Amino acid sequence: MIIDNSINEKYIRTLAFGCFPKNVLEFQESQDFFQQMIFIDYQKQLIIKEEHHNNDLFIPESKQKINQLIQYTNSITLNYENTEKSFEELLYYVVLLAHLYYLTGQVDFMTDVLNSISVPYSINEANLTSMTKNQIELVEYLHCKYHMLLGLVHENGFAIWLEYLSHFSKPFTKSQVIANHWLELLDLKLAESISQSITFDQVKRLSFFTNEISTIQFCNFLIRPENIDMADSQFKLEYTTFLVSQIEANIKRSVIFPNAMNSNDSTINNFINNLYESLSYVPFNLAIVKPTVSKRYLIDATSKTYQSKVVLSNLIYTLIDLNEYDEAFVAFKTYIEYLATEEQLSGHIDDILSIIDTFSTCIIHFNPIKSFKNEQKFKHTPDSMVEADLKVFTDKLLFYLNKLQEFIDLTYDESDTENDLSFLYRKYNPNILQTDNSQLIELIAKAWYSIGYYYSFVCMYDSVDETTMKQNVTKVLKNYKNSLIINSTGNILYLHSYALALANSQANKSALKLCKFILKKYPESFKTWNLLVLLLTSSEIDNPDTSKPDTTKLRDSEDFINKALNIAGLFIMKHQEKDIKLSFIEKTEILELKLTQLAVLESIYGLNYMMEYLNEVFILYHELFDVEFDTPARQQRDSARQFGSSARWSHRPSFIDPSNLPHKDVTKSRSPILDPLTTASNVVKAQTVNKLKRLSKIGRTQTRSSVVSTSRKSDNIKDRKLLQGLWLWTSRVFIRAGMLDEAEQCIVEAEAIYKPNIKTFTALGYLTSKTRKFLALQEFERSLEQVDKYNKQDLGWTLLGMAKLIFIDDITDNSLFISDKDLNGGIIRMKNLLENFTLSWPCGSNSSEVWYYLSKIYEIIDDKIMLDKSLWKCVELEDIRPVRSFSCDS
Known about the structure:
- By secondary structure, this protein is mainly α.
- Among the domains are: 1-158, no CATH class; 382-522, no CATH class; 620-782, no CATH class; 787-890, Tetratricopeptide repeat domain (Serine Threonine Protein Phosphatase 5, Tetratricopeptide repeat), CATH 1.25.40.
- 63% of the residues lie in helices and 0% in strands.
- It has helices at residues 9-16, 33-51, 64-79, 87-104, 107-115, 125-128, 133-153, 157-166, 177-194, 200-204, 212-222, 235-252, 265-279, 291-302, 309-321, 325-346, 352-366, 368-373, 383-408, 422-425, 439-461, 466-486, 492-504, 508-521, 526-540, 556-577, 584-605, 607-611, 614-624, 682-696, 708-714, 717-736, 740-753, 758-767, 773-786, 792-809, 820-837, 848-861, 864-879.
- Helix 23 (492-504) runs antiparallel to helix 24.
- It is elongated.
- The two termini are 52 Å apart.
């Protein structure tokens, strides 16, 4: 970094971000004129935040505090009347005092102050040569604010704003936060001065229309959601046509490729930065400039610019939008090289917010949880390479965040002993007066979240030992908390992610408080309602007040889940009335609420009571999802009972092929643990099963044989997978009730809805664990062979089934193992599999069943130390176990 050539250089840099120095209150006693102005500016913004609803142009009825600040400013000015001031100091004083006068309605005084200094529309480049970069950005901000305020009081203010935009040749960067804010205010006032419903033809007639920079940023401002009433209905369409034509013209324009010594990048960089930066505030902006068009344009721009990070960063975003992750990955690594070269040559970090945004976006999207787990978005790059580079990217982002912390005097936790929810009670950064919805706050919070998200991946998939895993969990919590220290209310994703991480770290009280806080601001966050209820159930296990059902009042968990479902019902109705479709995530979260309700009912009233409500799950599914249930004929693939019988299984030498064994009649040899409960009503059960079977036929209008190509293409695969999961969940309910035939029928339905997979294999393994244990072992082995490394939930379910089969269901008569040596090998194998699984947080390390089966293994191998540890861990987890996993993956 270049050594500051002014005592106020670092404060100037802080102001550019719309922030103030941490020690700003001390400036009241300062002998430096500029520092006194910073103090006054801070007091003014504090009043605007507290009394003016964060509106810089709102004039309140009570003006006492502002008048006092004006008096203080005038007295300070008299003290420095004979002191020589730089141009930027004088300009800062003028716009500050003029703004204060405007807030009190003293227009005449405001006019006199603004007229006391001559500020041309174009900044004289010669005057900037002696200034530092930070000083130049300060002047650019004050220059914009000056003309904005001048237009408010001038009789021909409209012309002043037009003239300013006509001369606006260099767009502000993302890091020029306060300058961008005042440019938006100028756009707002200009738009209000034109008409109530602006047409694109009107914009064409404005004097600045020939200036592409001003025209594009102004039009992008008009198509933001908050400004939708300012432009007419055809504006967006006509502007899109114009914009695409400008981009196509730029592609066709011939430009000589520059070199490092003779670069003509500025025109191209300015156009691209202005276009994509101003467009980033517009939701669904891909419909305006299609990613394919952007890709052509930006690739063309790389051939006309020299190592342009502006071009490359926007190309990275575009490639991610196109799901071209391999190309984006390579481009991002090149981008990092450009940054290193630029910082080495210039000695400073340019536009740090843009850098941080690019890093955090790439880290989030390249995270294997998003790029490999459910859909492999990298086609040619191995996940091992992505994982290795992600660590480098994260460390580099942390470096930039630390630099930003220096630039704007940010404060985070000073120690790890701070309260988990201290950000709810303590204002960490009173020097930042921007709202949680501002872009600055959102970008910083997003960066911390991306790091926490990365470490959540490491905790789940890449911890080499227990110590490392615990360290990574600490990093998850720390980085998620940092995102909330910066932005404590503005983003439900960050809030819920931290609450879930707290719950998975056994900090249930903190997680519960945070959930209640979240729901006050986001009452329609159904995943938070779900987590809240599950946290309540975890505290009801050993509570004597909730040990028996109370006929006079509901438990908290039952009460809250009912409230959540009522809100969900209203949410669905509201969207239906407005003809708005719910997203897949919203539908899934509502469905998860229903499953949680049934789990709560089972924990309070028992399994039989809960089973009376099974049909409601499928009714809700059909209400939420539109899936045709025309499925291939059963004979086109093996049924549940036929798995493994049509062909010999490639098995380990010590296991007996199940096709060679006489199969017992399942209905005659049920395990005692699968027998129907003595209190069960077989009539009720039969009615429940019949209802489910009727529901399973809803929408089946074609014959079974008419199926495959049409329905599979038209139906959403995600919807089918979800329905398959519901049938498998139902099969587990029937298994617990001892209704094995009904459980098998559910598995058959699951196969019909979506192709057989490790979920159905494992379900069959559980079904046959007691009665056909060799088939069960085959299915569990089949699952282990096919399970994806990122599918920890299904891996855990399979491992628990196999452990149950070996340590509980297997008996010496006709054992799975042909010798003691074979048995010992199986035990050691299970030990290794389960121990590795405990290094996966939270699904493995927080599973009481995993620790229980490990304790049985340690007991067999006589490892007393590990036996003691695993038993205590099992008891600890059981004491706070919710009725479902917090992630709702059970």
